[in-house]
Amino acid sequence: MSNPPFTFPFGSMNVLLIGFMGAGKTTVGRLLAERLDYQFVDTDDLVVERAGKPIPRIFAEDGEAQFRQWETEVIRSLQGRAQHVIALGGGAVKRAENLPLLKAVGAIVYLAASPAELARRIHAMPGVRPLIDGDGAKKTLPEVEGRVRELLAERLPLYERAADIVIETTGLTAEQVCQEVVRWLGSARVSAPQSPQSPNPLR
Ligand code: S3P
After folding, report:
1. C-beta of residue 55 within 8 angstroms of C-beta of residue 127
2. CA 179, CA 35: separation in Å to the nearest integer?
3. What's the pTM value of the predicted model, to 2 decimals?
4. Each residue of 150-174: pLDDT tens digit?
5. ∠ at Cα 108 (31, 9), nearest 5°?
6. Where do the domains of the chain lie, and which CATH numbers do they carry?
7. Ligand 1: residues within 6 Å at CB?
8. Cα 21 to averaged position of ligand 1 atoms, centre (Å)
9. Phi, psi of 85 (to 5 degrees)
């Protein structure tokens, strides 16, 4: 950790990964953290820690509004971290108040994927995403894809508004996505202006 292989030109900051459930934020995030020699953190894990129970139970016992409240508190608590790769829950962009908090923490990478690909990945891991199968009934792949399309229609503009860069991940391996992010970070570093007026030249 004494000599990280990659540093931003304007001091320590973080890389935030946003995107829909199943976009690969956690898998890519872990790889990326290793590559950059950064710490990895997943806001879902911090919410679970705070609540003392897993996400499906939070949704069932406390409701989505309480989950979002804890999620916002966790996002607020990210301030002050440096050299972290941070994977956000898929709905972290839903609350307008989260956006400036996220922007202040680091560069925001949106991992995009087609609804069909997202549905395939979500369908392969049933029971962990209450917004997809919170009623307890096992969903067919077309049912999952329908739900993905519904939620994505709402969220796409929010992801795009929040993002400093969009990376299309459909058909790519996690390793390839990680390389894309590293490449972008490298080009942002090279083209970064040095003005103290713009401490974050990535946006
Ligand atoms: C959610 C996504 C989940 C988790 C919660 C709500 C969402 O995280 O935060 O189930 O609203 O999209 P992942 O995107 O890591 O699955």
Report:
1. no
2. 9
3. 0.89
4. 999 999 999 999 999 999 999 999 9
5. 80
6. 14-178 (3.40.50.300)
7. 21, 25, 44, 55, 89-91, 129-131
8. 6
9. -100, 125
